[in-house]
Design brief:
This protein has 231 residues and is of the alpha/beta class. It folds into two domains: 2-14 and 106-230, 3-Layer(aba) Sandwich (Rossmann fold); 17-104. It is built from ten helices and eight strands. The chain has helices spanning 20-31, 39-42, 65-82, 87-101, 113-122, 137-143, 156-159, 166-174, 189-198, 223-230; strands spanning 2-6, 13-15, 107-109, 125-131, 152-155, 182-186, 203-206, 215-217. A six-stranded parallel beta sheet has the order 5-4-1-6-7-8, with helices on both faces. A two-stranded antiparallel ribbon has the order 2-3. Strand 6, helix 9 (189-198) and strand 7 form a beta-alpha-beta unit. The longest helix has 18 residues, at 65-82.
């Protein structure tokens, strides 16, 4: 029938406790258990510097997970220095943040994911993931048991293209030659819905309502009705 393109963070899965700011707080607590640092202290320093902030610029020169993280460490260093750590210690703590953030046991699926994927698969839909994510996304997907349900994972850290860049979507199309239809499902109206619209496919905004989304589902249980009616 066709291919359903799923975002990951906030759509299929989430990191327990929080994302980057939570990870950095945990690193601080390991270094200084008495430090009264919260995510609110960290967040102001984490507002920019990510690859997806400059989605217009491909990063094809990045050829390994280590190179990808080397681009991100300065963001973390800035945060650690901003709350009072020295430059040398901030650098060491930034590297530790990678291990904390990618700890597989911290990652989980929303309760509506497996039932929805299985129902749509039974109706002939193929599932792929298209995500702006860290290089370890594949490990996270396998840990969460999605590998048997998802045909491919297209990760910006590996392809070099961040949503909503049109090439991020075209790579999916090129690797889905037998698909007669495509839908994008995600929780970001810009990266997912507008990105899909820019390449001529419909997008469903999930979990976070926005008036610019033509299709909206409060949870994934509502997605099959939209997809099957529009197929």
């Amino acid at each position: 029938m066709g291919t359903l393109i799923w975002d990951f963070d906030g759509t299929l899965g989430y990191r327990r406790g929080g994302m980057f700011s939570a990870s950095l707080v945990e690193v601080v607590q390991r270094v200084d258990p008495e430090a009264a640092v919260t995510q609110d202290h960290i967040r102001p320093y984490l507002q920019s510097g990510y690859p997806w902030d400059m989605y217009e610029l491909p990063h094809l020169e990045i050829q390994s997970p280590e190179q990808w993280w080397e681009r991100l460490y300065p963001v973390f260093e800035r945060a650690f220095e901003g709350i009072g750590f020295g430059a040398s210690q901030a650098r060491s703590m930034a590297k530790e943040a990678r291990a904390v953030y990618t700890d597989l046991e911290r990652w989980a699926l929303f309760d509506d994911v497996i039932p929805t994927l299985d129902l749509l698969a039974s109706k002939g839909w193929r599932h792929v993931i298209l995500s702006n994510h860290v290089p370890e996304l594949g490990d996270i997907v396998r840990y969460l048991g999605l590998e048997a349900r998802v045909a491919r994972v297209f990760n910006s850290a590996e392809t070099g293209y961040e949503k909503p860049h049109s090439e991020a979507f075209r790579i999916v199309f090129e690797n889905s030659p037998d698909s007669e239809a495509f839908w994008m499902i995600g929780d970001n109206v810009s990266a997912d819905v507008a990105g899909a619209r820019s390449v001529g496919i419909p997008g469903i905004l999930v979990r976070k309502y926005h008036e610019d989304a033509e299709y909206y589902a409060q949870d994934l249980f509502q997605v099959p009705a939209i997809v099957c009616e529009g197929a």
